[in-house]
Amino acid sequence: HALRVVPGNAPDEAAHVEYALHLAEKGELPVSRWPAEPLSYESFQPPLYYGAAALVLRCTRPLPLKVQFLALRLFSGLLHLGALFFVCALGRRLAGGDGFEALCCAAAVPMFFFIGATVTNDAAANFAGAALLWRVVRVPRPARPRDAIFTGAAVGAALLCKMTLLPIVAVSLAALVDLRRGRRAGSAVRLASALGAALCLC
Questions:
Q1: Residues 49, 51, 57, CA angle at the centre, nearest 5°?
Q2: How far is CA 158 from CA 96, 128, 149, 169, 178, in A?
Q3: Are the beta carbons of 80 and 116 closer than 8 angstroms?
Q4: What is the share, in percent, of the chain residues with pLDDT greater than 70?
Q5: pLDDT per residue as tens digits for the range 79-120
Q6: Do 135 and 151 form a contact (C-beta atoms < 8 A)?
Q7: Using alpha carbons only, what angle is made at residue 155 by residues 149 and 44, rounded to the nearest 5 degrees?
Q8: pTM score, whole prediction
Q9: How far apart are CA 165 and CA 132, in angstroms?
Q10: 56: helix, coil or strand?
Q11: Which of 17, 18, 93, 108 has its Cβ near the most Cβ atoms within 10 Å?
């Protein structure tokens, strides 16, 4: 797909490239000027993916535009491969076995396969969401303070990728809470630690 699909012939791909180009060339976050600038409509998105994509563009600046575009698609593809790694690890943790079934279920979704070969912040969202869930299922019960801080850092990174991860963020924070008598104070400390770590990142 990365090699064969016509550039821009994927959902919002041209607008995602425009965001990354703006960061790479001007070193500042874009502002939406739609409809005067038709490709600025993704400017509201969190910047983590685009900052990394801008680095890819700067590293490939001497190369032809077609190669730079392919490098962006391959970068997104690497993030999707990372997401599949965490899906496999989640399958092992939750269902036992080698996690191959979970890997196949995710990889066999045609849209996941297609989007994974295009320039999009969905690549970062899939990676961050899968990594955050993997982190949460590994946290012991009750969670230790350092686990809360690491989870909070993962939450902050997820929020910097895409706001569609808010449901996963909510579940991740809820996993730190224990409402049983005698454990509520510890839950409040863990939750505060996680939120503090998330805010530090954001």
A1: 105
A2: 26, 5, 14, 8, 23
A3: yes
A4: 92
A5: 999 999 998 888 888 877 777 777 777 777 888 878 888 999
A6: yes
A7: 145
A8: 0.85
A9: 10
A10: helix
A11: 17
